[in-house]
Amino acid sequence: MIATKPASNSVLIVGGGIAGLSAAKRLKANGIPVLVLEGRDRLGGRVHTIDVAGDQTSWIDMGAAFIDDHQTNSVFHLLNESGAEVRPTPVRLFGQRLFDQRSSRWLGRRASVSAIGKLGWRFHKLRAKSSDFASLHERITAMLGARPKREDVYLLRSMLELLHGGPAENTHPNVSAKNYWEYLNYQEKGTVMIKGGYRLLIDLMSEPLLDSEVVLGQEVERISIAQVASASPPAVVETSAGTRFEGSHVIVTVPLGVLKAESITFDPPLPAAKRDAIQRIGFGHVEKVALTFTNPFWRSDPQKPTDFFHVPDPVAPHGMFIDVSPVAGSGPGDLGAPCLTYICGTATAQWVADNPDAAVAQVLADLESMFPQTFEPPIATVCSAWSSSPFSRGCYPYASVDTRPGDFAVLGQPTHSGSILFAGDACGDGTFLGNVEGALVSGERAADAVLDSFALTWPERPHG
Ligand SMILES: Cc1cc2nc3c(=O)[nH]c(=O)nc-3n(C[C@H](O)[C@H](O)[C@H](O)COP(=O)(O)OP(=O)(O)OC[C@H]3O[C@@H](n4cnc5c(N)ncnc54)[C@H](O)[C@@H]3O)c2cc1C
């Protein structure tokens, strides 16, 4: 059955997240016909903003939420040109409020300054000896010394595991060295959030595409490339619904978690170097619980948004609460309702994805224990499920203890004589890794590679 018959020179794009949309936008702007095949019934992938209470005042990002270092971030500039409003992040790395479950008391701002300060104090010394550590866990343990405070262990693990997505025991020891200064510079560099959420970026990126150029609800299961060089069209994509699409090239933008699970068959198979890189690079677990309330009962000053941590007993890779009210309105000028996001990583995140009801109950119990006098039940809650979704199987890529230099580059390389290209947040490098900007840039790069191949084979480009 052929549901849609694209021109045989269409470029088939598997995945309608930022990488897929940026590739499609670039190709279309250059006159190349495209068809985006998306497994979910919506575009955006790991960018997903939900109006939690359904009243246009509680738009909360369940996936990407921050634009880091916004002055140099192309995502910010795209949104800025479209008139979107951004707000500085409420997250502060110095002076976060910490509530200790064991003692049932607030630890005061000095506790978090002390933990971050310790990391900084030992940073240079440890960097030189990085080869002595087998994992980020060993590095943190050495930083904290023989008898660390509970809140220090908790804070450093939570922050680093949220940043990288992977458990400290499986994270490469050098990642903290590379990213530590970014941590400290967050405020100076200016991390921002988007008023009304990241959905504004999806609207912007999908605007040039016609309905006929996007097919939703099509889970791709097989990608095959004709063995005969002259075969036309060379690429065939088949979905779980039995639908078959043909095109000149395929750009694969599915998350690394999907590639790891091998739920898409490649014929001929992917080269061994690519398969090894896919397995060696880590893909972490981060989930969110979004909550909207009538009153911001967690604030000491009702006008001042605030963020805080709950240090569990025993110390576990727990998360933090972020007051996202300032960006929860529907767009520029609109006021948001009092909203919190609870964000957690690794084992806790996997538990949240599998047990959303229990997770919401736990988060509410924690809030009540922190604010016994003022706590109020929420109006509405939503839990993310990135780890359990077959379309993501995790949150974002990280350098695991097994990852080798060059693995991310190998992941981004085309295969099958250039007929299959790869894009997505794991195909970037350096600062372009595991984030929206990385996905955006990787999609443009894959589109450019297709354009280059057309320039080589077709003196005149087709116009779609
Ligand atoms: C909880 C969380 C918090 C984050 N926070 C931030 C942040 O603050 N800032 C930031 O910059 N980044 C953040 N990120 C990372 C950011 O969301 C991603 O890096 C980016 O959205 C990845 O885009 P992508 O296009 O590469 O992948 P995706 O957005 O995952 O797009 C891939 C698409 O492929 C589709 N797909 C999968 N399998 C199939 C299949 N078999 N057939 C067809 N379609 C398929 C998926 O449904 C999806 O739409 C966060 C991510 C998560 C999960």
Structural class: alpha/beta
Residues in β-strands, percent: 15-25%
- Strand line-up in the sheet with most strands: 8-7-18-19-20-17-21
Q: Provide the CATH top-level class of the largest domain.
A: Alpha Beta
Bound molecules: flavin-adenine dinucleotide
- The number of distinct β-strands equals 23
Report the mean per-residue pLDDT as an integer.
Answer: 87
CATH topology tier name of the largest domain: Polyamine Oxidase, Chain A, domain 2
Main sheet summary: 7 strands, mixed
> Rounded to an integer, what's the Rg over CA atoms?
23 Å
Figure out the total of helices.
Answer: 14
What is the molecular shape? globular
Low-pLDDT segments: 1-5
The CATH level-2 architecture of the largest domain is identified as Alpha-Beta Complex
Total count of domains? 2
Helix-strand blueprint:
Elements: E1 11-14, H1 18-29, E2 34-37, E3 49-51, E4 59-61, E5 66-67, H2 74-81, E6 86-88, E7 97-100, E8 105-106, H3 109-128, H4 136-144, H5 150-164, H6 175-184, H7 186-189, E9 192-194, H8 199-206, E10 214-215, E11 220-225, E12 235-239, E13 244-247, E14 249-252, H9 256-261, E15 265-267, H10 272-280, E16 282-283, E17 286-292, E18 308-311, E19 320-323, E20 339-345, H11 346-354, H12 356-370, E21 380-383, E22 397-398, H13 407-412, E23 420-422, H14 436-457
Parallel strand pairs: 1-2, 1-14, 2-10, 7-18, 11-15, 14-23
Antiparallel strand pairs: 3-4, 5-9, 6-9, 7-8, 11-12, 12-13, 16-22, 17-20, 17-21, 18-19, 19-20
The structure holds flavin-adenine dinucleotide.
